[in-house]
């Protein structure tokens, strides 16, 4: 493999973006982060930006709604990774236009970082959220931009600290609510691992125009299996309540919008089993732990130890 590609991250100050910036810089890629002017004045984000600079990353001022700033930033790099948040998914058509105009990008990774949206069977509002990401996939393909779609599945930090409980900030020690029968296999991956595998993939011809679908063998587990690992860590059997699919659907319908998105994604993953109910065919997908067996990922078992 030749020289490491130059990478631009758009959304680097976001939740998953910061891990991607760190991994890119630590892996020795010349790393550029597109930052909105106003964000440099945000106290917490300013600290994050200082950390990026200390890792050797270059900050460039820009905004996805400022075409010139985008084209200028994109012309300096080989790879563009977008980690913009849910509200900006559709607006990535602006990134596609800028990448087309710049004409130099060898790989574009749009903001995905979840379930493989071409293999989901979700209910609303998750259905529309996933369709928004799928529409961006189709626009990238139609524009002929070399790409990799990152379907890392669930962020460990979103689910495991509370063992999937929505009404608490800590892991349960007495009672637990399990969605459905708890038997469908889900996938959760530590954010640092998502970032490292993503960065490994950008210069890899095996991931070109493919979806990187995460299935770390030890992290493909059902809700029941995760609970049982947690119980063994705390040396206690929890009192379990199984929430029926009908009740979950009712909760989704009655929840405010933000919460209904989260609950309907949980329905897709934990009731439908959308993260694992298809085979990864070589025609469309590759699994990163198989591609990079030399990397050691954090297992769910190891991850849960910190909360016991
Ligand atoms: P965040 O909302 O935390 O961060 C969004 C980033 O985009 C910030 O850096 C923000 O910058 C930047 N941004 C927003 N608007 C603009 C703009 N106009 N111009 C330039 N930059 C902009 O995103 P998340 O990390 O939560 O989400 C990233 C992806 O991960 C999404 O696709 C989301 O669906 C997915 N996700 C997956 C989860 C999972 O469990 N698999 C869980 C949560 C999210 P600023 O700092 O200036 O605001």
Detail the poorly predicted runs: none
List SSEs in N-to-C order: EHEHEHEHEHEEHEEHEEHEHHEHH
Specify the helix fraction band.
Answer: 25-40%
Biggest beta sheet summary = 5 strands, parallel
What percentage of the residues does DSSP assign to strands (E)? 15-25%
CATH class of the domain at 7-154 and 190-215 and 279-292: Alpha Beta
Would you mind describing this structure in some detail?
By secondary structure, the protein is α/β, with parallel strands linked by helices. The protein has a domain at 7-154 and 190-215 and 279-292: NAD(P)-binding Rossmann-like Domain (Rossmann fold), CATH 3.40.50.720. The chain has twelve helices and 13 strands. The chain has helices at 17-26, 43-54, 67-74, 93-102, 126-143, 156-159, 191-201, 223-234, 245-254, 257-271, 288-291, 300-305, and strands at 7-10, 31-35, 58-61, 79-82, 107-109, 148-151, 154-155, 175-179, 185-189, 210-213, 220-222, 239-243, 285-286. The strands form four sheets. A five-stranded parallel sheet has the order 3-2-1-4-5, with helices on both faces. It is globular, with a radius of gyration of 20 Å. The N and C termini lie far apart (42 Å). The mean pLDDT is 97. NADPH dihydro-nicotinamide-adenine-dinucleotide phosphate is lined by residues 10-17, 34, 36, 39, 45, 63-65, 83-86, 88, 111-114, 154-155, 158.
Map the helices and strands.
Elements: E1 7-10, H1 17-26, E2 31-35, H2 43-54, E3 58-61, H3 67-74, E4 79-82, H4 93-102, E5 107-109, H5 126-143, E6 148-151, E7 154-155, H6 156-159, E8 175-179, E9 185-189, H7 191-201, E10 210-213, E11 220-222, H8 223-234, E12 239-243, H9 245-254, H10 257-271, E13 285-286, H11 288-291, H12 300-305
Parallel strand pairs: 1-2, 1-4, 2-3, 4-5, 6-10, 7-9, 8-12, 10-13
Antiparallel strand pairs: 9-11
Helix pairs in contact: 1-7, 3-4, 9-10
The chain binds NADPH dihydro-nicotinamide-adenine-dinucleotide phosphate (NDP).
The site of NADPH dihydro-nicotinamide-adenine-dinucleotide phosphate has 27 residues, from strand 7.
């Amino acid at each position: 493999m030749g020289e490491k590609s130059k990478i631009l991250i758009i959304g680097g100050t976001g939740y998953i973006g910061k891990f991607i910036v760190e991994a890119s810089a630590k892996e020795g890629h010349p790393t550029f982060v597109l930052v909105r002017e106003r964000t440099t004045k945000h106290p917490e984000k300013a600290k994050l930006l200082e950390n990026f600079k200390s890792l050797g990353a270059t900050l460039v001022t820009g905004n996805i709604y400022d075409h010139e700033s985008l084209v200028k930033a994109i012309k300096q790099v080989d790879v563009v990774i977008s980690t913009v948040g849910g509200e900006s998914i559709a607006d990535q058509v602006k990134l596609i236009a800028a990448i087309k105009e710049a004409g130099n990008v060898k790989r574009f990774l749009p903001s995905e970082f979840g379930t493989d949206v071409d293999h989901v069977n979700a209910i609303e509002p998750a259905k529309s959220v996933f369709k928004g990401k799928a529409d961006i996939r189709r626009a990238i393909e139609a524009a002929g931009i070399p790409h990799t779609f990152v379907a890392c599945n669930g962020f460990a930090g979103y689910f495991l600290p509370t063992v999937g409980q929505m009404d608490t900030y800590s892991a349960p020690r007495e009672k637990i609510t399990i969605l459905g029968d708890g038997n469908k296999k889900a996938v959760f991956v530590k954010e640092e691992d998502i970032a490292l595998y993503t960065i490994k993939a950008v210069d890899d011809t095996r991931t070109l125009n493919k979806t990187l679908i995460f299935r770390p063998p030890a992290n493909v587990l059902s809700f029941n299996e995760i609970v049982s690992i947690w119980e063994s860590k705390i040396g206690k059997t929890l009192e379990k309540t199984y929430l029926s699919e009908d009740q979950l659907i009712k909760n989704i319908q009655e929840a405010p919008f933000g919460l209904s998105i989260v609950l309907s994604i949980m329905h897709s993953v934990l009731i439908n089993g959308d993260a694992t109910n298809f085979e990864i065919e070589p025609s469309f997908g590759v699994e990163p732990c198989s591609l990079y067996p030399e990397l050691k990922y954090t297992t769910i078992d190891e991850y849960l130890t910190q909360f016991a």
